[in-house]
Amino acid sequence: MKGFLKFISSLAALFAAAVGALLVVDRVLNKNRIKGDYLECDTPEEEK
């Protein structure tokens, strides 16, 4: 039983490390992204 719990806890630790690494990579790659709403464009919308 202890071996099984050790295996499950190691899987959980690996999963948490992978998610943390993905979050760090996402923060670094999207450091300069636009925060908030979309930018307003000067082009007029298409008339129907």
The SSE order reads H
**How many strands appear in the DSSP assignment?**
0
Distance, first to last CA: 68 Å
Strand content: under 5%
Low-confidence segments? none
Helix content: 55-70%
Specify the number of helices: 1
Structural class: mainly alpha
Structural Rg: 22 Å
How is the biggest beta sheet arranged?
none
Mean pLDDT: 84
Tell me, briefly, the overall form: rod-shaped
Keywords summarizing the entry:
single chain, 48 residues, mainly alpha, 1 helix
Please describe the topology of this protein.
Blueprint lengths: L1 H28 L19
Overview of the molecule:
The termini are far apart. The chain has 48 residues and is mainly α. It has 1 helix and no strands. The longest helix has 28 residues, at 2-29. The chain has one helix at residues 2-29. The model has no long low-confidence stretch (mean pLDDT 84). The protein is 58% helix and 0% strand.
Summed up:
With 48 residues, the protein is an all-alpha fold.
